[in-house]
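agent: user wants the structure for Carrier domain-containing protein from Streptomyces davaonensis. delegating to structure tool.
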Amino acid sequence: MQDEKQDLELFDKLVGHIGEFVERDVSHLTPRSHLNNSIEGMSSLKMIELLLYLEDCFGVDFEESAMDKLETMQDLEDYIRQTQDAARQQA
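agent: tool returned. relaying tokens verbatim.
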């Protein structure tokens, strides 16, 4: 139950930050939403800018090799969670 709540909190924060970045309502996004198709006006350059913005928001680094694998909102959420968990374990 606690894990589900944390999942929802992270997803809600992620949607909120994306909405701030693109300056429009993105509340329609779900974990299965494809990043390039579901966010209006999302070009390859905009995607890189978004990931840089999210690095600051969540305190993570998106490795170049991982960026190509981030296709859905779930992929993005999982990457952020795994990166944050790994950082906590090293601390």
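agent: one observation worth passing along. The chain has one domain: 2-90.
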